[in-house]
Amino acid sequence: MGYPVKPLKRTQRDLVEAMVNLLRKEPFEKITIDDVCDEALVHRSTFYRYYHNKYELLESMLEYTAYIFFVEKGELEDDRSFVTQLIKMISQEPIIFQNLTINNEFFDSYSQLLDIVSQIILKGITNQHEHDDLSHFPLFHSLANSKNVNLSVHIFSGAILTIFMEWIKLDNSNEQTLTDMIDNLMHEFPPLCD
């Protein structure tokens, strides 16, 4: 089973890794394109050869990170294995998620992040290539076959992002707590998650 991601060139990977490294240290809103270029050891013109802005780089970073976790680090057999990998991805470095969401003062990261995550899921459930198709998972199959796919994907993405944001606010956040929170979501919305 594949995951929808376009191959990254070496320079794009360097830019993605630079963004990840910067997100380990500071909120997304404070990261500039110059910061990314300095961290990646590339010129601004190189950045603009691949991305129009840091939001496009963020989308590429999220797609690439998801690809690494979902394809290279684990077999996805069902919705549960997908959710388990998602939990591992977030709980491994929660500071990155914090710096994308709650640590930002002015940047409306939630709506931007919601759009990016929704677009990644939409690509996965509407992709015509068998190796990139997520719709064979029951959860994604339900989303792909809903009356309003775009709205359903945004609602699902919003629910998952909200759980992650609430989890990182907890004093004693750990992987089990996150697992329990997602289990509760799946029990609350069985038609979406069965």
From TrEMBL:
It comes from the Bacteria. Pfam families: TetR_N. Keywords: DNA-binding. The keyword DNA-binding applies. One of its GO terms (molecular function) is DNA binding. PROSITE patterns: HTH_TETR_2. InterPro entries: Homeodomain-like_sf (IPR009057), HTH-type_Tx_Regulator (IPR050624), HTH_TetR (IPR001647). Residues 32-51 bind DNA. Residues 9-69 form the HTH tetR-type domain. This is HTH tetR-type domain-containing protein. The lineage of its organism: Bacteria, Bacillati, Bacillota, Bacilli, Lactobacillales.
